[in-house]
Amino acid sequence: MSKQFDVLVIGGGPGGYVAAIRAAQLGFSVACCESNPYADPKGEPRLGGTCLNVGCIPSKALLHTSHLFEEAGHAFAAQGIQVSAPKIDVPTMIGRKTAVVTQLTSGIKGLFKKNKVTQLNGHGSFVGQGGAGWQVKVGDEVVEAKQVIVATGSKARHLPGIAVDQKIVLDNEGALEQQSVPKKLAIIGAGVIGLEMGSVWRRLGSEVTILEASPDFLAAADQDVAKEALKLFTKQGLNIQMGVKLGETKVSKKGVSIAYTDKDGKEQKLDAERLIVSVGRVPNTDGLNAEKIGLKLNERGQIEVDGHCRTNLPGVWAVGDVVSGPMLAHKAMEEAVMVAELMAGQAGHCNFDTIPWVIYTSPEIAWVGKTEQQLKADGVAYKAGKIPFLANGRALGMGDPTGFVKMLACAKTDRILGVHIIGPNASELIAEAVVTMEFGGASEDLARICHAHPTLSEAVHEAALACDKRPLHF
Predict the structure, then answer these.
(1) What is the largest CA-CA distance in the chain?
(2) Ordered domains of the chain (ranges, CATH)
């Protein structure tokens, strides 16, 4: 007799493991199957998905190490700290990153045990409907579940004609495993991954060139933020080429040679020791057997869902990168909690208008809500408050007064419509904006709240005051 569960989650990434834990907390018998190739020392598939294994967590570990290295080499002297020129031991850096990943992925196993979630090792593929609900093949066995949550995530998009070997040509996985600093590094794609990986290796000594097909830098961000970021990244030493058209890429044992046409129509050639391809991600729907059971996919290969992550099939849900919307771990987690609570008859909800975006460069970039260009396109009357970190005492004391906070509020109701930050600790500062917007707050609300002094959060406070043209320190 096959194993039977109330809920089967296919995929153990952020969306999957959170869905499994929350469903178990609500009293369901739950199993989660995972087959990712990032085997742990025991040879078992690792939980955590792309985010924990080859994405968010390891990249932040490398960003932190490279930031410290750059601080020691370039910023300590201004603080009166005298040290000899720092040296980077790349294998040790990679080893520390791996240890962080191992600790967190092992932690999920502990959470599964604590919440009585059954982990099934193997690839999940639909077989059909059975007496207890849905039949899913996991590895060599078939299990049954009344409800199924698909959380299979995404994988790196590769370019035709450029084979990724994870030695010379890398995607996000290979970029996190380099054992030495390349003298010259080429990156295709100026998105989040390209900028973060470019920042890591540029700080450690690489000459980094980023090639981007789009003519607009960080098109999803507010234009003020994008313009400031491009200026600062260029000043740091990142060579960012926008509006390029790729030509032939030749790969040898020694490196790569990329032919491209620049934005002015001139033929160029870029030689580098290694190439990182970071041109987006595609949903993991291969092998689900979606066609056999009639599970609808859109033209991008994503599973079609409604606003509550229900698919076209009864009892089948989908969350995270495998559905439409931003491919963000925290978005997947929120969808996961919503689905588990809806299955339990509760009022699960996910507000897609208040999902924050973060880029962990230096300075960090974070935003939530509408950009100024979106408000203009929609014909929404708004007012703006913008405060530079140069006017913030804590930022000056830290030696990092770059960037600004920009707040956009409705001209009629004063309700906050968007907040955009480029500067120190932007990833943490954006949380205040998210909370305020989630409660339908106005710029006046933030302006009337006492903020501790001296803190970086005072820049958010001043931006709120600036929406009413009454900043106190700028």
Answers:
(1) 73
(2) 4-156+282-350 (3.50.50.60), 169-279 (3.50.50.60), 354-466 (3.30.390.30)
